[in-house]
Amino acid sequence: MYDHVRSDNYDYNNCNHLACSEVRAAKLGGHCKNSFSYVYSKINPEWNTQKNSTCVKQIANENMIKYYDHCSSKY
Q1: Could you state, in order of their start, the residue ranges of all structural domains in the chain?
Q2: With helix as H, strand as E and coil as C, how does 35-56 read?
Q3: Residues of the chain with pLDDT > 70: what percent?
Q4: Is 0.85 topped by the overall pTM?
Q5: Largest interatomic CA distance in the chain
Q6: How buried is residue 26: exposed, middle or buried, by Cβ count under 10 Å (0-12/13-18/19+)?
């Protein structure tokens, strides 16, 4: 909903628009954070950034394949 309200030309059939929405949702959803990551990030911030980035990509990819059949061949 955020992307639809934010953009004048958001297209639900555009796979790039949908992918951006999924990345944003995965990043803000909190699924990629846990207590170990938080504690370890205080010791080595670079590690946490890499792990979080990989997690966000994985969740966004899974959601694209799961929810958007017309885009699944691209992701």
Answers
A1: 2-74
A2: HHHHHHHHHCHHHHHHHHHHHH
A3: 67
A4: no
A5: 43
A6: buried
